[in-house]
Structure formats: C-alpha cells, structure tokens
Structures
1.
Amino acid sequence: MRALQLTAPGVLEMREVPVPEIGPDDLLIRVGAAGLCHSDSFVVGLPFPLREDPMTLGHEIAGTVEAVGGEVTGRAVGERGIVYLCWSCGTCRECRSGNENVCLAAGRTAMPPCPGLGPDGGMADYVRVPANSFVPVGDLDFEQAAPLADAALTSYHAIRGAREQLRPGATAVAIGIGGLGHVAVQILKAVAEDVRVVAVDVTPDKLDLAAECGADLGLLADGETAARILELTDGRGAEAVFDFVGTDPTARLAVESVAPNGAYRMVGLGGGNPGIDAGPAGGPGLPWGATVRKSYGGTKSDLLASVELARQGRLRMAVERFDLADGPTALDRLDHGRIRGRAVLIP
Ligand SMILES: [Zn+2]
Ligand SMILES: [Zn+2]
C-alpha cells in the first residue's frame, strides 16, 4: 500500500509499505480521508526523528472497517467511522472517569499514543487502529468526518470546559481561524447561540470564512486588537478567549482581552508565553479570577458530541481536497497559511 511517511527530519516521502497486520484487539481501516494538521507540520519540522524507522503521518482518520481482530466484539467489516486519537489505556482512574486525554499511563507531560505522532497514522491506504478508538459516523462524507477527529474534538473540548462563561450576552473570542478556529466558531454558535462570537485573524479571507461559519464580528489582528475587544465589552473583556495559535502575540492578546472571571484557553501549540505573573491584577495583565487552561485534544464523549453536531448538519468543515500523493504540497500550503479551513488527503 502507499503511505506518506516522515523518513528523516523534514523529509516527507510517499512509500510503498506492507498493509499493517492487526492484533486481536485491532481493526484494519481502509482510509477514506485523512486531515492535515499543524501538528503534522510541527512533527515534520522537528530537528530530530520521532521514531527510528519511517513513520506514517495522519491523526485525523476517517474510513471503512476492512478487517476485525479476533477478540473484537461489536464491530463489523464495512462500518464507516473515524478514529479517536487518544489511544489511552482505557483502564486507569482518568480513563474510567472519562478523561482519556490525560490518561495516567501517559505520565505528567506526555500525551497518550496518537496515530501519526508515534504509531503509524492514516495518511495511507490502510491503518491499524485499536478497536475501541473507532467511532461510527453513519453516512457522513469521509472528508467531512476526518477533521472531526481533531479539529472538532479539540475545539469542542476547549469550549465545553468554558461553558460556565458562555452565558447569554457573553462574548467569546476565537483567535486564529484555521482548521480548528473555523470549527470552533460553529461549535460556539451551536452550543451557546446567545453568545457573541468575535473572530480574530491576520488575513481578511480567514475572517470571511469566520463570518460564513457564523461569527458575529471579525477583527483583523493588529496592535489595537485587545483595545478593540475591551471597547466592545464596556472595558470588561471577553468572557472566554480561545487561542488556536498560541504564539507570543496571541497569548498576550488573550491575557489582555479576557474578562475578570473569564476563561482563557490555550489550544494552539505555538509555544507562546502569555507573560502571566502573580502580582495585583492592574494594567493589561490577567484580571482577577480569570482562569488559564492548557487544553489538549478531548475526551471520547467530546468526540461523540462533535459527530452528533456534524450529523445534525450544524458543523460543516471547509475542506480543501488533495490527493494523498500531494500531501507535501498541502503541507507547504498549510505552512504558508494558504489553506482555507482544513486540508484533507484522499488516498
Ligand atoms: Zn492535530
Ligand atoms: Zn488511562
């Protein structure tokens, strides 16, 4: 089969590899679509190899069950679905409490094994997955379904954790209208329709996309963005700020525009420093009562909720389709901010 593999730091190659063998608790999935994420770009850009042997990328996987492991019950060949990306242990205290994204087996700072970021992922004709990671999607298009596995899951998780702030009349800010951000705007409108959603991005066409997704207002990011958000909110700031970029400027924007008792959620992994200190909440720093949460992925139930929203037609991914073989081109476009919504590779 074909697989888009990271063969050395910075080197992405289409290779012919054997179809994966599956264990008794696994499924073999024939890939219908695989989404491309900034995390892929991050991994390709690492100066060291993540694995010694070539690794197939792809953690947003949609496809059809091709084979079922001997010990698996309740799954059948031909079922259509997506793959939950936290391959957590399923038995620890956190997993049993429904917090699979912070599985104890991953330790304090790691993340549970994730296809395409350790185990082989879905940018291939076939992928082996643990059977309990499979989530049926009914008749959703694969290219619509694949981005649910991360873009929707991760956005939904961050938003669910800020529900207390998302009361009628509140303002929510989404910074960065890319793969996650354009989905987050729709999720905000779906779960908290009386909340005003303000989209922030550096390019006008991303703000157009945000408007199509239901954003009430778009702000082109510049040095005045925090001041504009304060102006819009009587000087208080936004009750919830979701940063899907995570660089120094966006982290500071979040701190400077979140309201007292508001929620600042770090989602984008840009390594930015929000510059929070423990002093009095004067000036542009973090106001009293505001919380900061570093948000990783989501829980299985967050994924089920995301699938449900998509099946109800309330989530619609903006998708740019690429042939699997054109993965490197898609990655290059993503790196240059030229993907509208999500790039999806079709084997
Ligand atoms: Zn991702
Ligand atoms: Zn666990």
2.
Amino acid sequence: MGLFHCPVGAAYYDDEECIDCGMCYAKTSAERVEASKKIRAYFQAHAARNAVPRKIALCGKGGVGKSTMTALLARALRAEGNRVLVLDTDESNPGLYRLLGLEREPRYLISLRKRDPGAIELDGAWLDREQIALDDIPAEFAAGGNGFRFMMIGKIEDPFQGCACSMANVVKEFMEKLTLGDGEIVVIDMEAGVESFGRGVERFVDTILAVVEPSYESMALAGKIAYMAQGMGIGRIGAVLNKVPTENVRARMAEELGKKGVKVVGTILFDPGLNEAGFEGRPIASEDSAREDIQGIVKSLFE
Ligand SMILES: Nc1ncnc2c1ncn2[C@@H]1O[C@H](COP(=O)(O)OP(=O)(O)OP(=O)(O)O)[C@@H](O)[C@H]1O
Ligand code: SF4
Ligand SMILES: [Mg+2]
C-alpha cells in the first residue's frame, strides 16, 4: 500500500499520525483484514460528533434521486432559515445547477488544484487556509446569494483527461477545512456508488443519507453505504426511500433495510412533477408534492 493512501493521513510509516494499523506491511489478506479492523475502530473512537447535522452527504446507487433530493433538502433547509451551501461533487452529471434554479455554473474548485498551462492565474489562497468559513469562499466559486450558495468540484470533459482522484482529494480537503457556524449547513451531492467511500471522501461529513429506490441493488448498496459510513465513524446515518409507488412497497423497503440495520428517515413517493422537472432539466417547482415529505425528513434529522 502506498503511503499516499494512508487512511489516517500519516505521511510515512511511524510518523506521529501513524496508528500502526499494519496496512503498510500487511502481506496476507488476513493481515489486511486485521489492519482494516484497526482503522475502523480508530475512526469510530475519534469521530467528531455534532449535536445537529452540518455536513450532509447524499449517497446511493446511480439514478436513485440523489441530485433531486439534494435540491429538495437544500430548499427545505433554506426555508427554515439556515444558510445553505450545496456542493456538487459528481464529476459526470452536469445538471444540478439547473435543478436549483441557477442560470450558470460557478467556477470549478478543481481549477485551483489543476495545473492548466492555458488557464488564467487564479487566486486560490482562500483554499489554502487551515479553516474556511462560508464567507471566505469567493463568489466566482459559489454561485447564488441570499443564504443559498452552490459550488462545483468539476466535471470530466475531455477524453484522456485522467481519473477523478484529484477531484476526490479536493472535496476531502475542502470538507475538512470548511468550518460552519450555527444555522449553516452544507448539502453534498455525491457521485453514484461507493467508490467515494473507498477513497475516504466522506471522512469529514457528519451525516450520511442513502437515497434508496425500490430495487434490490439500491437496497443492497444502502446496506454497504451504512457499513462503510460506520467504519468512518460517521454517527448519523439514515436512508430516504424515493420513487416509492405504494404504501406496500414502502413497508417492504423499510423491512429489508431494517434487516441491514439501516434506519429509514423518510419517504418520497414517485412524483410525476419531479420526474418531469428531471426530464426537462428545469428547477423543481415549489409546489411539488414532495414538500411535506421533505419537511418531515428535515425534522427527523434534527431530532
Ligand atoms: N420522487 C421521484 N419521483 C419521480 N421521479 C423522480 C423522483 N426522484 C427522482 N426522480 C427522477 O429520477 C431521475 C434520476 O434522479 P436524479 O438525477 O436526482 O438521480 P441521481 O441519483 O442524482 O442520479 P445520478 O446517480 O446519475 O447522479 C430524474 O429523472 C429525476 O427527475
Ligand atoms: S501503518 Fe497504517 S497508519 Fe501507519 S502509515 Fe501505514 S497505513 Fe498509515
Ligand atoms: Mg445526480
């Protein structure tokens, strides 16, 4: 294992950050499993526990409704008087800013970390600070205003552009440094699947919401997400059932997730209005039927 990937951030074996988990020198799969257990136990013992959610990541299988839920949740939190930052960390899908009612994308955060010889010189000093407050983020990187802002990590746009590791690293760095005060919340739209967990991108969030649709794969992945989030020491983990057609399906999904130890925090029914907005790539309407359901989810998160 390369030192670069040390899960606790040690620069080399035996430096002061090293917890001697054994991953560096594991030679067998049994030794690697033992090292993973030590890492898991370490994160669980050292997790920062916030009394209320401040950094909420929406995760789940592709297409389950993470971006839709991000937009709904952000709007509900803003309506309750919070200052909300939405962070788009999906390096593929382009349309979240449209769902949020914005006309233009902000500048990508990755542009501060990528050496692009043709790019204009950008002042990235704010990203190098040890702590970053919402007001430290320049307007060109955070669109919106009036208590609601939107940031994008970046998108893969060209063939042979390279892998998305650098984007994952900048998300982790930004999340670690972002310091939120009372009534300030960041809602993070994650890329589909669990690769980000493998990279430890969610390490600095305090709340994981797995969005789950009525499919075996989606529910299986929610169980895996909960397991991985626990292994990172994240204290608040729940599932939001989405695109649910009937009460019977809701009950079956809740039962299945219960067997996996995943708590359901709310349900959004299949909503033709939401589907239409997604189809047309336009902002979610304020009168959509999910409004009350999402208010219930916010209430349950803050209880
Ligand atoms: N409750 C719902 N009722 C009806 N349609 C929905 C609902 N939630 C989401 N959709 C639709 O499902 C599709 C996928 O939603 P969305 O893009 O939010 O998923 P995602 O998890 O972010 O996908 P990806 O993994 O590709 O990022 C969209 O067309 C959206 O409009
Ligand atoms: S032994 Fe574990 S904690 Fe120490 S440097 Fe290697 S991976 Fe990191
Ligand atoms: Mg999405």
